[in-house]
Amino acid sequence: MALIDLANPWIILLALLAVILAVTVGVLAGRRGARASAEAAPVSRAERLRSLPAVRRATRRRAAAVAGAVALLAGSAVVAGVVGARPMAAQTIQPVDTSRDIMLCLDVSGSMSEVDIEVLEVFEELLEGFQGERIGLTIFNSSPVQIFPLTDDYEFIRGHLQSIKAAFDDYSSDIPEHWVGTLNGTGSSLIGDGLVACTMRFDHLDEERSRSIILATDNEAFGAGIVTLEEASVYARDAGVRVFALNPVEGKDDEISAQLTGAAETTGGQAYALRGDTTVGEIIDEVQEQEARALQGEARVVWRDVPDVWIAVLLALVLAGIVLLWRVRL
Question: How far apart are CA 191 and CA 138, in angstroms?
């Protein structure tokens, strides 16, 4: 479907001027022909000459050529108005995003309070290393809360990470902002439940995509959750999700660290020390080793100028008009 802005007064004025010009050319042509006839030398028995079939055919051809030239010029004026009005056509675009999906999974229990700001700073460093990946954030304690879903709007992501960092320094309320919604279960730091919740935050499950979870936790659970860390890691593996664990207590408790490392390796991922010199770079390399998959975005309609056909018609009309005018020697 094409649209033309006929409400533009300059376009209407241009078309009218072109029509007036075409009519004027036709009138002047007729007057010139009449004047030429009047100035011609008198011919005896001219009526007999004009009645000759050849003369009559020539006269009809000339009149038709003049009328055609005027019609072509008038048509050119109309088409010029259409071109000036910028005809537009709708086009449906289906964008394709070739990327990977990454869910940041943050333990916000009390035992993590001293290191969560460091974890968020690591998340920000990871954000700088990714290009086009869709990133989401889910936090958990005794219950999980999604902060934002998977998105490639990095300014949006960066703003939320900074907002949560600021919340960790806000002691003005009994329940800090980053704890709201995370205390609805029994116990604390239920890592298994949190990991399963993060795994369930991935979308487009019917499509094969690169999916990763960056899990930051000290693995110090208190109370019984719905699933254990081992069960959660198997669930993530079966869902095609690799887990990369950030361990803030690496080297302090070998058993806890071994459990976290085992869970990550079950999914095909790895565990890293939070304060490791190469942690960020290694995680980025591991994630980007997986092939990026195409994901079709939401279809949208865009409007574009489509003057090509009208310009071709305008040129053809003008050229035809010039040829006719030349043939009748105006």
Answer: 12
- CB hemisphere CA count around 121 (13 angstroms): 8
- Angle, vertex CA 69, rays to CA 64 and CA 71, nearest 5: 95
Q: Please state the separation of Cα 187 from the chain's center in Å.
A: 43
pLDDT at 252: 59
CA dist list (Å): 213 to 234, 243, 257: 13, 5, 18
Place of tokens 């035992």: 111
pLDDT at 273: 87
Q: How far apart are CA 118 and CA 12, in angstroms?
A: 66
The residue count for the chain: 330
Identify the residue whose tokens are 């009994």.
174
Structure tokens at 136: 């989401």
The torsion of the CA quartet 106, 172, 155, 205, rounded to 10 degrees, works out to: 30
Contact yes or no for 152/97 (Cβ under 8 A): yes
Query: What do you get for the CA distance between the two ends of the chain, in Å?
Result: 41
pLDDT digits (tens, 9 = 90+) for 48-97: 666 667 767 777 777 777 777 777 777 777 777 777 777 777 766 655 55
